[in-house]
Q: What sequence folds into this?
């Protein structure tokens, strides 16, 4: 794993905060163009952010931050997530026996919110994920029952590799936990590189180095398409916005800790707002899991550095150690 550390400065004046006008309030400027005239989306884009996916309940009546509120929220959030502070939420979990991997040096979650909104979710207006269906709630309750007392990287009692729980795809290095699709701000390696030709766009996620190849032209998804972990993506231009529809997933992804179904349909929109900002809007539609579709939006910032290799399970010891540990714990 290679992460980029910025100084973790808790000085309010040093936090990068989008002011009251906000990225999402801006109309996109004239997008840079490729030599063949399409909007140029190429480059390495950093999507880390302290802005929560859902609006916190204590901010239910606050749709947007003031600059002062945003800076204070960032300071509180950094403290809450700290692996090193004895007073943090994670330190409290560690005292109850939970294992907290690494320390703060290894993490790169950001030092600020990246929009004036109090959530990445922009629809519904509440900033909250819609309710789950009855079937999804029942499935979640059953999973919680069978994995009662089991931590996130252990097999289900009596289970095997397929039973590593909601974090199983991440633990097995099949998918990066922030690469999706869709991509979401997370603990580290929050970078994607975009490549373009006249008829194809490629999204190369830094974590687990997945390269998603997106043909352009608006072709329909083949009804007999091979189902893949990252789905089947098709793209088209809507003005200066690249619209990507992805369906035909093999099964769940790492998005939202694996709650999605193989019926998930994603609509991603990438818009070059200015030279240093790529707006990433995602509409999530999975009727098997949620009672309504919902949309979140992330401003990605240009990263002048290249992608680095994400070496998952160095030496291929990961699964061996997980299963050996489970045996030692008497799980199997």
A:
């Amino acid at each position: 794993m290679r992460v980029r550390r910025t100084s973790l400065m808790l000085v309010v004046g040093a936090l990068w905060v989008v002011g009251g006008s906000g990225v999402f309030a801006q109309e996109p400027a004239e997008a840079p163009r490729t030599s063949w005239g399409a909007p140029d989306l190429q480059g390495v884009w950093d999507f880390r952010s302290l802005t929560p996916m859902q609006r916190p309940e204590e901010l239910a009546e606050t749709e947007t931050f003031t600059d002062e509120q945003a800076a204070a929220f960032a300071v509180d959030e950094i403290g809450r997530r700290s692996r090193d502070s004895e007073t943090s939420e994670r330190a409290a979990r560690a005292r109850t026996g939970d294992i907290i991997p690494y320390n703060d040096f290894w993490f790169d979650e950001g030092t600020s919110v990246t929009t004036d909104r109090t959530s990445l979710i922009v629809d519904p207006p509440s900033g909250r994920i819609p309710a789950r269906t009855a079937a999804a709630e029942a499935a979640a309750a059953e999973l919680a029952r069978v994995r009662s007392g089991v931590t996130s990287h252990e097999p289900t009692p009596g289970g095997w590799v397929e039973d590593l729980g909601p974090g199983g795809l991440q633990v097995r290095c099949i998918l990066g936990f922030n690469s999706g699709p869709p991509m979401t701000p997370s603990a580290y390696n929050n970078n994607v590189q975009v490549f373009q030709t006249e008829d194809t766009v490629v999204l190369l996620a830094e974590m687990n180095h997945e390269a998603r190849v997106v043909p352009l032209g608006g072709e329909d998804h083949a009804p007999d398409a091979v189902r893949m972990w990252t789905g089947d993506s098709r793209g088209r231009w809507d003005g200066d916005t690249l619209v990507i529809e992805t369906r035909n997933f093999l099964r769940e992804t790492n998005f939202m800790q694996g709650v999605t179904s193989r019926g998930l349909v994603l609509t991603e929109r990438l818009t070059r707002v200015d030279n240093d900002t790529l707006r990433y809007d995602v509409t999530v539609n999975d009727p098997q899991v949620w009672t309504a579709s919902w949309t979140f939006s992330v401003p990605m910032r240009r990263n002048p550095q290249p992608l680095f290799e994400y070496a998952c399970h160095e030496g291929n010891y990961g699964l061996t150690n997980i299963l050996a540990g489970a045996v030692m714990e008497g799980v199997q």
